[in-house]
Protein: Glycerol acyltransferase
Amino acid sequence: MKKLLAKLILKLVGWKVVLEGDVDNLDRCILVVAPHTSNAEYLLGNLAYWSLGKKLKVIIKDAHTKAWYGFIVKAIGGIGIDRSQKNDLVKFVVDLFKKEDFSLVITPEGTRSRVPKWRKGFYHMALAAKVPIVYAAGDFKKKVMYLGKKISVEELESRSFEEIMTDMEEYYKKIHPKYPENWNPKIF
Structure:
């Protein structure tokens, strides 16, 4: 039901999903979503994932899971984290992946505002959990959600962080964010 509903909503709003790799790439990974200039990317990304019948989770401020609408946030994959406390998010993510298969959404910018560079946590989470990194992007000019380009665990372990980031930077340069003024295409 969720799959059909997601396909219908995407069609009604004029968006399409382009799969850039095997659909199975989306089963167990760190899903790097960029550019992140609006909450619309999350909503469209959820619909794209649901349209493919895949399971998605996202780490967010616990205020959203504790609010009156928290049951909705949790139902669509929200995992609340108290950001006022020091958390070992890498260990937390590794433990989550030991329990189940899913894609974990990470927005390395960490905010919808322009940042000088990305945070590196997504890279360390993928290495520690031994899961691939998969690219995801919403192009607001073309109205396309791109999903599925993968950096395998073997690549993560054999290539340098700088090489991987250079490839990612090149990939995301072609994407048109909702608010271009909030996007810094120089990610590291």
